[in-house]
Amino acid sequence: MATRVAAFTAKVRNLHDFQLRLLHGIVPVPSGLDIANTIRSFSQILLCVLKDVPYSPLEMLRNCEQDTARLALFPNLDYKGLYNAIVQLMDVVPLIQYGLHAFGQSVLQCLGCLLSFLDAETIDTLPYLVASSMAVLPDSLHQEIVNCLCFYILPFTITRKPQSEEEDQERQHLQIEETYASQSVSAILMMVFQFSNNSAHHCQLLECLMAMKPGVVKDLLCITAYGTAGARSSAAKLLFYYWPPFNINAIEKRTPTHQVRLAVQNRSPAPFVSADWPPLLCQRDSCPNTGVAEAAKVCFDHGASITFANEKPPPLYLCIECANEIHRCSANLSFHDVIHPMQQVALFCESKSCRSSDKQAVSVCFSMECASYNTNHPIRHCRSCHQSRHNNRRGFDHVYHTALTSSWKMEVETRTFLIESIVSLLQEASSTSSVPESSSVKEGLQMLNVQSNLMDLQSSKSAGTLSVTSSQTPDSIDDKLLMSRHGVWLMVSLCWPTAESDAEVIGRLVSMLLNWYAATAYINDHLESPSEKLKTEHVAPWIAAVIDKHPQIFVSCLLPHPPEYARIGGHWETLTGKSAHLKAGLNRILCLVPYDVVSPEIWDQVMPHWMEALVTDSNANASQRFGITSPMNVEISSQISILLSKLLDPEMSPLGFDSKTMYNFLTVRFSRTSASVQKQTLTWIQFLTSLEIVVQINILLKMFSEGVRTMKVANPDDRFLRKPSNLEKLSALHDSNGSRKTSISPVVEDDSEQNSPLSEDEGPAIPASSEAGFQTDPELNLSCCIMMLDILLKQMQLQCMERHSGIWGALATEICKLLRNMIISPWVTSHKCEGKQSEECMFCESRVIWHQMALHLVTYIAPDLPLQQPDSEIEVFSSEEVEKGKNKSSPDSEKKQEMRPSDVVITMPLPETHTVGNVLVNMPQIMTATVETVSEQLDLAPIIPSEKVVPAIARAVTITDTDVATATVHVQKATLVGENDQPIDIEKPFDNREFWKTSVGKFWFSFEDLPDQLQYCHQLLKELPTTKEPDVLYHILQSLHILCLHGDALVKASRDHRGFLIWCQENLLIENLWNLLNAEHGHICDVCVPVLLHCITLPCGLDVFWNIIQKAFHHQDWRQRFTAVERVTVIARFLDTTPLKNQQALQSALANAFCYLISSMDDINVQVAQRATLFMGTVHDRAIKALVLCLESQFDSVIVDRPMVLQSLYQLHNSMSDRRILSWDFFLNRFDTLFIEAQINAEKCGDITYLRDLRNSDLNSETFLRKLNRAHEALSQSDTSNSGGSAQGPSQADSPTSSTAPSAPHQPPPLIKTLSASFGTKWPYKRTMSAPAQMLPRAEKAGSSSVIDKEKVYSRQFSAPVLKRRSSGRFGIGEYS
């Protein structure tokens, strides 16, 4: 015995020596034949030892408790050393140069013989060792490996029971204690699936395991979940081939079940047909049908196996003929039936005694008791037959497999395998996507299967006879799409969402399904493809159920930062940056849109988070502009822009709803929200605009108007919010403390602290809308207003909207309304710079930016060039209107004249008369009663001088003598008509804010009724006196300049809203503009002067400006006159931009101001006189010529002013001798005017018969006729002044027509202002108004000599003005050319 042991041990050492020589390449290297011969000798030794054993060790292998007794039957040889030597040789198989086939056969035979001699731990590892040999042994041995597993190894390892046979039979169907061998079934299956491309091998091994282990489906699901690509494909196909339908109603309600199963089989690259794999043949050496007869019986007696098959390991598999022959010779041998392969996977019950009406198969039984009814083939049962054959009384020890139930009813481990199987199958479609990816993303996707294909890569390094990688991984798109559809079928049949479903499981499935949508969206396939049918018929209802039962889970999976359990598949499996993750997630949403999965409600919840994530990522990328920017980030940013453009395309958007609904997620964030929410939303819109994504202007205006309306709630003094309806709405926005109510808070990119960052290089998220300087609501409101204007301007440019289309269009009206609402928001007056300079104040700088943006917006819509100056028809007191008024025919026609909107018409009441009485009752003649007119002076709106008010006239009423006795006359009440001809009830108390006092009367108008353009102008004018910052003033004036001169806003107001314009002229326009004329800020004056001069040409502009000039230069305080000199000089400096031709009122006003400026050079105050002299020299030549033109026009138009004009020009000529102030043409034109006027007077007296001028011009020429008309107007004006009264002094400056004294209360003032009336009488402290010595001032004649006594009167005040000492010869005619 010792010699036998030593020989056995020596042979084992010989095997170890073979392994070392192969491993280290020691010569001579053993071949496969050498090793095979040595291993065969071990097989013979083991069979010889086994032959002497009295008991059947194979029967003892079934029970673990008999292992000790079993091992005691054999001699003490180194069985485990032999096993370890074979294991080590399997590791160096790739190094064997030849004889590999013989080596493999010998190893399989030896392992089959060695099974009975191993201990329990080693037996458990034996199945996996045999299965792993498929990775290194040639393909020709794959069938032998499978046969070894199915008939010699697995029946004695998987079925090993740890308990006694009696107890196990009672509890086998309830609980099975897993051993290492049973737990390694999934690994065994995966090895065979991966390294064998023959589906017959897969079916044979799976059917063998199904006959021994009830829970094989769990192993299949495990392989599908965690196996390699080839193994997953085979496992998924076997799962659908062998298992009964999961849920027919869920998979297909219209199509028969067998069509679904056939579709699975037909689309498989290698259909699973059980008849394809060959059955095991008879193992008897002397079988008469060797190589043909199928094994039908098995004998577990080791003696019989050694006797009848001396080279085969036990047990012995025999055909029927051989089994009967041996049984006749050895009656004590027991034979068991061998279950045959499944001939066909039936969909209906195969029991011949089935009486159920529903014959759909729900289980398959592999026990011989049930299989005997199906000719020893596994049999399928319906539900009724299954319950009758497998219950507590019978069939409890049968191995059967039932249809899979809902995943929510499975045990935790099985459900985990199922969910992961669905995920892995859906992931197969990711590699089929043809969507453009960046290079790094492609590399990441290619690395997905590296780990799963590791065994393939190792196998490819083996001997050249092996080529298994290409046969295992499905390379075609159809195969991968089929696998992904398997996952969809599993999901919709076994994982239908319910209210009790695990939220994380549902989220995981939803996330993977969304990736599947994205992966299959770019496949070039027709709409009738299986994937598209699945999406519309099965997946869409499943998603609808998820949205119904778990809406927040579905929304969270669509977010840019989904929960951790939803970060699976697709881009989550790659090592990419945050931008790549965002791009892939956005692309996923785009792929979902065509299937109506994204509803408007989901869109509104998802998009705010996406916008915040995209903006934050964009800011992070922009912060790297001074560092090294990855080209991949630039590429991904461009792809994100393309995806957003597709999603938000207003015309071609795949969302399926209109632009209003598409941008509703932005609109709702402007209503009843805080300033921080609005600013964050505006940041998103700015980001979209930067990507050149169009947002319709009307939608933007609606958003911004609502946002500004929400801002205005904080301003209690807003007169535009006085309507009760608005107050009720706005009061709902505040709580009891007055703070703004809101149900929407700023979006946080990732509000879950448990979620990990999207990439390793991602830092802490910085909110896109955060700004360190602005914290309070007014400051944030200002920032929001700036962003609104910036977005609006850029969107108008992006949409190529017409520029300079005018300020009266629909779009311009909405823009002006928005600007007007912004400027009355609380941020305008709620800020004070405390403890810092205004130049360093961020709020003040932002305020300047807002006005600058408003200017850009107004410039965009307003005409590019200034419009023509107002014609003479719009002037207040033009001579044409007077002439037209004189030519009116009758009172009836005057009543029919169209009244202007600003006229206030009063219907005068009729006087009440007494009843005539009975005295005239019997009078036969007809009496005529004349009702007199009663004029009541109602001081509601006095007559505007330029308009003729129709008086109320009561006509004569004719009555008969029979009616006189009872006739009565009633006084009718006065009727007041507003600007728009609406009747006004005068009995009701008037709101004071609706009546506005002016120098020409009261006007009734409401600011809310004005056009939005005029309302915006009004708000800008209100800002002028309170604004101190020069930059803000400049932009406000620029806006007014564009609106008034380019947009013709004030001219239109003079026609349609005269009362409003007159009130603005007297209160907001001219005086404020006059106060802004400061030489220190020339850029402000450059804009202010044209607006001021334009206002002078409008109604009441001349009167207001005339009075301001007169008051300033007649002021007692020299500082006021000092400032007036500067302001008039500023007007002169910037005069060249304003046309003066045909502007008689403007010429008269400038002549008046210029005369005051000239006279100020002789002011009694030295500072005023010196400043006037110095500033006069700063006026450029063009302005001097324009001012001289105004004086000439005043000379020709007003006869009484001619001495003063000549005196002013003479003084100007002497003070500015280097300028050519006077010329020959000046005197010729003036003498020509005097000559024509003298001829007109002579013609009236009859002294001459025709007129001519000094130039002897053609009497019919336009030039001569213009001179003649001007002379007539001057003479008529002179006659009117002489007949109407003398000029009034400054004491009557309160009257709007202070130049003349009207003879009647409502008599119109003269059309042309006179300098004589403006300068008035001699002022004691003035040196410019000289008079003869014998003439005393009127103040002295009136007895006011106290004024003269206070100041020393110099004699030169009553003489000619002090001039430069020059001889009179210098003023000869020849001196001028």
From TrEMBL:
Residues 748-763 have a biased composition (Acidic residues). InterPro entries: ARM-type_fold, UNC79. Residues 1290-1304 have a biased composition (Low complexity). Pfam families: UNC-79. Residues 732-774, 877-901, 1275-1313, 1330-1350 are annotated as: Disordered. Residues 734-745, 1275-1289 have a biased composition (Polar residues). It comes from the Eukaryota. Residues 881-901 have a biased composition (Basic and acidic residues). Signal peptide: none annotated. This is Protein unc-79 homolog.
